[in-house]
Design brief:
By secondary structure, the chain is mostly beta strands. The chain has one domain. Helix content is 10%, strand content 44%. The protein is built from 3 helices and 8 strands, in the order H-H-H-E-E-E-E-E-E-E-E. It is globular. This is Transferrin-binding protein B C-lobe/N-lobe beta barrel domain-containing protein.
Amino acid sequence: MHIVSPAKAFLLIAVSTLSACEFGDDGSGTSYSDISAEVDRLTEVTENDVVLETADIPTMGTASYLGVLALVDTSNTRALMGQTQIDVAFETDSVTGTVNDFVYAEDVSDQSKELPSVDGTLTFENGFIDRTATSSDPQILTELTGTLNAPVDMFGIDANTDIDLQSDFEGVFGEESVSGYVSGTIEPASGATVDVGGVILTVEE
């Protein structure tokens, strides 16, 4: 069955040193090095994680998964990162959660620079477990939407502009994780939309 390899996924989006570090309440004072310093926590948990067969996904109880969302645009040099919580109710097959405490890196090659915080929250909506998923199919399907606002230009969009993010998340269950891919667009109040894509990597808490 398909699984997102955390290391390979992060390399593919040119953000190979991300993690689920504690960004702080608003991300202020966080540098890319701060984020990179915590990468081992996630990769150590998930690098050998085995994807659950769909038939083995629990049918009772709940679970919460904490980690990181990393989004990039087609340039692969600019990254938006946020703390992610995914909540699963297995009995009802529902998937909810949020992403917040965002920071933005205009150039990920400057690892010492403090990263500006980005206001806003993204919400998982209409999320569910697909118990008909076969090998290589996503087991979690959900929309990820919300409005963000950065004090700096973000993905070429002017600073202090509200942008709406509309995206889909497709994920799988590992023995200790939920991981998967995000694809969608961000759209300012005026101007062209920007295509974005990335990775969510979370571990069960």
